[in-house]
Design brief:
The structure holds 2 protein chains of 2 kinds. By secondary structure, chain A is α+β, with helices and mostly antiparallel strands. In chain A, 55% of the residues lie in helices and 17% in strands. Chain A has 2 domains: 171 residues, no CATH class; 167 residues, no CATH class. The longest helix of chain A has 37 residues. Classes of the chains: A alpha+beta, B alpha/beta. The complex binds adenosine-5'-triphosphate and magnesium ion.
Chain lengths: 382, 247
């Protein structure tokens, strides 16, 4: 493109304006990517949910516990490959603000249902043998600088307020780097021995692995029918529906994120659209001269679009670079509250695409104006 | 030979026949040109004079393919431009017309060199060929030593010389100048006129120029007056000087 010099020179014509416009793009992009990572963090549970897993909860609500005897009854239903159960421990490590999810797991079956959480066999065997054993996700261990062999005190808030001590026997990883590596697992047997009697022999929820995901509806129905008219009726859903239920708790946040994103988009569009309109208007006579010299209307449109796209590109890249630097920091500051905030490659390309789209859209109207402008009128305005 | 009576033969370079231009402003029609005829040969140097609002700029715009007449035809070097489509006309302008306007109309963010190079960017010339042409054009206008200066670093006369270099760099068929000295002091105006005379005399350019200044018009071979929408051949230039006074 032989006109690059002109485009480039036009870009730097008003330096303050250029800085402000590129800056608005950069800030908007930081905000935009931040919103996108938060949103994806909320949705990640749904995305990574196994299609071949069902979750069984008490029909009355998640806080109601079910008898542990359900495990065998569920395992007997055709199509069920494995059953395990979880409890929410809800303890505090050192300080309230060190929140992370702690699950009371069933060491015998957990691995059969959750193969994506990988623990070396040696560590797993130590854990299974150790009543006070615990396993932590790699990110969690990294956060508190835990090593295998450390003793970890956790104060319960739900089960009598005592401080329980655990031995860290293993660290789990996930296949995908963006998997949830922030959980803390303890043994159900140890839990069961130490909780008040009303909680003994219970499970918070059951997780079922199916032989075939196509059986999900049938197996769910069979489970719920089996426990119908009992003191603890059940509600069985696919894991993604279950995760979606959690995500829905944040439904308003999702809406908020989309709204803020929309506002960012339109503000940016108006700001850059206005800037481009002003710079085209300032250059009316120059554009007239260029047309007189022989630039086609389409080339003039191209000049304007190239300029707004260049602004969008530089601002976008700057914003994404800032986001790349800032998001791990923010993510670190809010660990535990949300799954890790990850700026993925598709998100980066989407962000750049977003910037370029706004760039093109904001250059389009002024560009068409410049294209339609008649030379004689443009020159008369000198 | 310049004629305004429509009697020129088809050998001429520029031939306008029965040109009409009507503007409508708020429902009211203003007839600016009314059946104007003009014949200009290659190498002619014509000055157009006339009171403000008589349609001089309008005529130049039509001849340069910047605007289309309401009626009539314009033929340049055998091509009838009045029926060309928009993009055809744009291409034709790039090939055949060099424009020099009153305000210098340089792109302020480009150097003199880059401004002069602009028309060549539309051609297939290579970088080094473009360089040769630009340097030649700048040498003709005597600004070789200023080629890397920006317009704001140049005087008005120098800026206008850059405009002239830009107009001649692609070796157009003819040059159109709309009050090329309108914004300049006497001395700079004289220099610009000497340059335009040189383009005509030495390089054989065809120049059509609008001016309010009888001294400037006196430099042309022929002065034509726009009166009531048509061109009339001048009283002698000398008369004009004393009748109109210097601007
Ligand atoms: N786009 C337009 N719309 C309406 N009227 C116009 C337009 N362009 C020119 N005119 C009118 O046409 C007439 C001729 O204008 P033109 O600019 O050709 O005059 P001129 O001889 O060049 O004047 P000057 O010496 O002041 O430059 C004027 O009355 C002008 O107001
Ligand atoms: Mg005029």
């Amino acid at each position: 493109m032989k006109f690059w010099r002109l485009i480039f020179a036009n870009l730097f014509r008003k330096k303050v304006r250029l800085i402000l416009t590129v800056g608005s793009f950069a800030i908007a992009l930081v905000l935009f990517t931040f919103l996108a990572v938060v949103r994806s963090a909320f949705n990640r549970g749904i995305e990574i949910a196994g299609a071949d897993r069902l979750v069984v909860v008490d029909r009355v609500g998640l806080m109601n516990l079910m008898p542990i005897s359900y495990a065998d009854k569920i395992a007997a239903i055709p199509g069920v490959k494995a059953v395990t159960h979880d409890h929410w421990f809800g303890g505090v490590y050192q300080d309230e603000k060190n929140f992370f999810p702690q699950f009371v797991i069933d060491a015998e079956n957990h691995r059969k249902v959750y193969p994506e959480f990988m623990v070396p066999d040696g560590q797993w065997n130590n854990f299974a043998k150790d009543r006070q054993g615990a396993i932590a996700g790699a990110k969690l261990a990294e956060r508190f600088h835990w090593k295998v062999g450390d003793r970890i005190p956790i104060k319960t808030t739900l089960y009598g307020g005592a401080t329980w001590e655990f031995n860290l026997d293993g660290i789990y990883h996930t296949e995908k780097p963006d998997g949830d590596q922030g959980q803390f697992w303890l043994q159900w047997k140890y839990f069961d021995e130490n909780v008040p009697s009303v909680i003994k022999s219970t499970a918070g929820w059951y997780i079922i692995k199916l032989n075939n995901p196509d059986d999900a509806a049938r197996v769910a129905k069979a489970i719920d029918e089996k426990f119908a008219n009992s003191p603890h009726e059940t509600k069985t859903e696919t894991e993604s529906a279950f995760a979606g239920y959690f995500a829905k708790q944040f439904g308003n946040i999702q809406f908020l994120i989309m709204t803020i994103g929309g506002v960012v988009f339109f503000t940016l569009l108006l700001v850059t659209g206005n800037t481009m309109a002003i710079s085209v208007r300032e250059r009316t006579s120059e554009l007239g001269v260029l047309k007189a010299i022989g630039l086609t209307d389409r080339s003039v449109l191209f000049l304007v679009l190239a300029e707004s796209l260049a602004i969008a590109f530089f601002g976008g890249v700057l914003g994404l670079a800032l986001a790349l630097v800032m998001i791990p920091g923010i993510s670190g500051a809010i660990t535990g509250l949300l799954p890790p905030l990850l700026l993925s490659k598709p998100m980066l390309s989407f962000g750049l695409g977003f910037a370029l789209f706004v760039g093109a859209a904001s250059g389009l109207l002024p560009g068409i104006g410049a294209m339609r402008m008649r030379v004689v009128n443009a020159l008369r305005r000198v | 030979m310049v004629r305004v009576d429509g009697s020129g033969n088809s050998q001429g370079l520029i031939r306008a026949r029965g040109l009409n231009k009507t503007y409508s402003r708020g429902g009211e029609k203003i007839q600016v040109l009314q059946g104007l005829n003009l014949d200009v040969d290659k190498g002619d140097f014509v000055a157009f004079m006339g009171p403000s609002g008589s349609g001089k700029t309008t005529l130049l715009n039509l001849l340069g393919g910047l605007d289309v007449p309401s009626a009539g035809s314009i033929t340049v070097a055998g091509d009838e431009i009045t029926h060309m489509s928009g993009s055809k006309l744009t291409q034709w302008r790039a090939r055949h017309v060099g424009f020099i306007f009153q305000m210098y109309n340089l792109i302020p963010v480009l150097t003199a060199y880059q401004n002069v190079e602009l028309p060549l960017l539309l051609t297939k010339l290579s970088r080094s060929e473009r360089r040769k042409h630009v340097e030649t054009a700048l040498a003709v206008v005597g600004l070789t030593d200023r080629m890397h200066h920006y317009p704001r670093q140049l005087s008005g006369g120098q800026e206008q010389r850059v405009t002239i270099a830009r107009a001649i760099v692609s070796d157009p068929t003819f040059l159109l100048c709309d009050e090329p000295t309108g914004d300049l002091d006497r001395k700079s105006a004289d220099e610009i006129m000497a340059l335009i005379e040189e383009l005509v005399g030495k390089y054989g350019k065809t120049v059509l120029m609008v001016t309010h200044d009888p001294l400037v018009a006196a430099r042309a071979h022929t002065t034509l007056h726009l009166e009531k929408g048509v061109l009339v051949e001048g009283k002698t230039p000398r008369e004009g000087v004393f009748a109109g006074g210097a601007a």
